[in-house]
TrEMBL record:
Pfam families linked: Pirin, Pirin_C
Gene3D superfamilies assigned: Jelly Rolls
The name this protein goes by in its record: Pirin family protein
Residues of the Pirin N-terminal domain: 62-140
Domain (Pirin C-terminal) ranges: 202-304
Family membership noted in the UniProt record: Belongs to the pirin family.
Native source species: Flagellimonas ochracea
């Protein structure tokens, strides 16, 4: 086995992560034609466990949506979400008054900090064709000193995200630095905003029957490579099949031999925060007492309430990609 490989593991739901990351999920849903109201044909929902539709044997899921797939409003505190939508679209609404429709490679970075509510819905915008969705959501922890920062909403449009182009590979640099290709600035209070923490989020695509070298980091960090699509890859004589994760020694370059099919990876890397983690659903703090306080505060304040007409709020069907910021600034992309 290549000495850079520490461990391999199957990818479940959610994916296994290492500090400073808390959680990572991959959604690949082959949604059907829309019904004109941004949901599937109601006839297709008759045998669904609506409100808890996570069955991995299905080609597509409704998650917690009743008529439109997705996640109606829910709270977060104490960490950040990074949502990468490679295919399809996500409609975001939150308690700050921010909103957006993003997809086809866009990324949304949200700092929950002291508390925010948001909804993430997956509108089926096409009525005459399928509506495939490919999405990653990553939870990046906040250190104790930043658990109560003001919430922050940021959109990273796909045309602005740096892409490192090599002879046989493309690396989308969402966070960190890949061989001199530097990502855009993350949210200001993020663990990723400190260069010494070497936080990296890279979506890597490598052609089949080639080799790719993942460059070593310059300090002691955790590094996990998620092989989510392809045929097979090799680290030395160690074969790894798709739908497996690889824990790597970040102090070494990792040479990967790619099998016959194009390989697709997500890589998460960062300096550990090394603080106690107390988690309960959408709350991540340092102690159980802080979790209880978060639950009580949410019960009393709803983290600012919900300014939108529906818990599963979606935007006008004809609207293109856009971001509405809490200060009222509106950016429309198409």
């Amino acid at each position: 086995m290549d000495s850079a490989v520490i461990q391999t593991f199957p990818l479940g739901f959610p994916w296994q992560t290492q500090d400073p990351f808390l959680f990572c999920v991959y959604h690949l849903d082959h949604y059907p034609n829309g019904n004109g109201e941004m949901g599937p044909d109601p006839e297709l929902l008759k045998n669904r466990s609506l409100g808890n539709d996570f069955n991995p044997s299905q080609e597509w899921r409704m998650y917690h949506g009743q008529t439109i797939p997705g996640f109606p409003y829910h709270p977060h505190r104490g960490f950040e979400t990074v949502t990468i939508v490679n295919k399809g679209f996500c409609d975001h609404s939150d308690s700050l008054g921010a909103a957006g429709r993003f997809g086809d490679g866009d990324v949304q970075w949200m700092t929950a900090g002291r508390g925010v509510q948001h909804s993430e819905m997956f509108p089926l915008l096409k009525d005459d064709a399928d509506n495939p969705l490919e999405l990653f959501q990553i939870w990046l922890n906040l250190p104790k000193a930043d658990k109560f920062v003001e919430p922050h909403f940021k959109m990273l449009w796909h045309e602005d995200i740096p892409m490192a182009i090599e002879e046989n590979a493309q690396v989308k640099v969402i966070a960190g630095d890949y061989r001199g290709t530097q990502a855009n600035d993350p949210a200001p209070n993020s663990w990723a905003a400190v260069p010494e923490n070497e936080v990296a989020i890279w979506n890597i695509h490598v052609e089949g029957n080639t080799e790719f070298t993942l460059p070593k980091a310059s300090s002691e960090v955790t590094r996990t490579l998620y092989f989510y699509d392809g045929s097979e890859i090799y680290f030395g004589d160690k074969k790894v099949n798709p739908n497996f994760g690889v824990v790597l020694n970040a102090s070494q370059d990792a040479l990967i031999k790619i099998g016959k099919a194009k390989a697709h990876f997500l890589m998460l890397q960062g300096k550990p925060i090394n603080e106690p983690v107390a988690k309960y659903g959408p709350f991540v703090m340092n102690t159980e007492q802080e979790i209880q306080q978060a639950m009580e505060e949410y019960r009393l304040t709803q983290f600012g309430g919900w300014p939108w007409p529906y818990p599963d709020n979606v935007h006008e069907k004809t609207k293109g990609r856009f971001a509405l910021y809490p200060d009222g600034k509106l950016i429309e992309k198409d």
